[in-house]
C-alpha cells in the first residue's frame, strides 16, 4: 500500500496499474542459520564418509554451505597437505585449530552463503594443484542435474570440478530428488555423491536417482 500511495503522487513520475510482485527463478531465500541446524547428524555422517576419500598428502577444496564445515573439522588434524576454501564458516573452524595449512580464497563477500567469490576462479584455483574437491548442492534431481540457490556460486563450483583430479558432492539424503533454481553441473561430470548412506559412485547413483523418481 505504501508503494501504491507513493507512486500515485504527481511528482513521482510513475503510475500504478496493478499486478503482482513475484520472486524470479533466482531469488529463492536461503537462510544459512536455519540450514545449519537441520539434519546435523546426517551431515556429520556424510562428512565421515567423505573424510575416508581423502588420501594422505592431498590438496583438498572445500566448497561453501552448511555440510562441509563438518568436513573441515574432521580434516583439521588429518594428513592432508593443504585445505582450500572460500567459506567463512569453515575458515573460522580451521583458524588456529588446523594442523594442516589453510588457503582462503578471497573475493566479493556474499553474506547469504558466508563465502567469498572472485571474478576469475579458474585463475585462482589453477596453480593450487587441487587433488580432491568437495562440493555442496541444494539438490540433485532425478535426471542427475545438480543445483544450488545462487547464480554467483556457479563459476567457482565449475572451476573446482574442472581443475581438480576428483570431485564429489557431499549432502544429506533429503536433497536427492530435490531441485534449486540454479543448475551448475550434471552427475556424470563428478566422481560421486556422498551422503549419510555412503558413497554413490556412477552405477549406484543412477539406481538411487531412479528410486527417487519412483517415490
What keywords describe this structure?
7-stranded mixed beta sheet; 3-stranded antiparallel beta sheet; alpha/beta; 215 residues; globular; 31% helix
What does this structure look like?
The chain has a single domain (30-212), classed as Rossmann fold (3-Layer(aba) Sandwich). Helix 4 (68-75) packs parallel to helix 5 (88-94). It has a seven-stranded mixed beta sheet with strand order 3-2-1-6-9-11-12, sandwiched between helices. It is an alpha/beta fold and 215 residues long. The chain has eight helices and twelve strands. Helix content is 31%, strand content 20%.
Summarize the model shown.
The protein has helices at residues 2-7, 32-36, 40-51, 68-75, 88-94, 121-126, 154-163, 202-214, and strands spanning 59-62, 82-85, 102-104, 108-110, 115-117, 132-135, 139-140, 145-148, 166-170, 182-186, 192-195, 198-200. By secondary structure, it is α/β, with parallel strands linked by helices.
Amino acid at each position: 500500500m505504501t508503494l501504491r500511495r507513493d507512486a500515485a503522487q504527481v511528482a513521482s513520475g510513475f503510475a500504478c496499474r496493478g499486478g503482482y510482485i513475484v520472486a524470479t527463478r533466482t531469488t529463492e531465500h536461503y537462510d544459512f542459520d536455519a540450514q545449519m541446524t537441520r539434519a546435523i547428524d546426517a551431515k556429520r555422517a556424510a562428512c565421515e564418509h567423505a573424510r575416508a576419500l581423502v588420501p594422505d598428502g592431498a590438496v583438498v577444496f572445500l566448497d561453501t554451505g552448511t555440510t562441509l564445515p563438518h568436513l573441515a573439522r574432521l580434516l583439521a588434524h588429518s594428513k592432508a597437505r593443504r585445505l582450500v576454501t572460500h567459506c567463512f564458516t569453515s575458515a573460522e573452524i580451521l583458524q588456529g585449530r588446523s594442523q594442516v595449512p589453510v588457503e582462503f580464497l578471497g573475493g566479493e563477500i556474499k553474506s547469504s552463503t558466508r563465502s567469498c567469490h572472485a571474478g576469475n576462479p579458474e585463475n585462482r584455483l589453477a596453480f593450487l594443484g587441487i587433488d580432491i574437491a568437495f562440493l555442496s548442492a541444494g539438490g540433485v534431481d532425478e535426471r542427475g542435474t545438480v543445483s544450488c540457490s545462487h547464480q554467483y556460486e556457479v563459476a567457482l563450483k565449475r572451476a573446482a570440478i574442472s581443475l581438480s583430479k576428483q570431485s564429489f558432492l557431499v549432502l544429506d539424503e533429503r536433497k536427492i530428488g530435490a531441485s534449486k533454481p540454479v543448475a551448475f553441473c550434471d552427475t556424470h561430470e563428478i566422481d560421486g555423491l556422498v551422503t549419510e548412506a555412503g558413497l554413490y559412485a556412477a552405477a549406484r547413483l543412477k539406481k538411487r536417482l531412479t528410486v527417487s523418481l519412483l517415490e
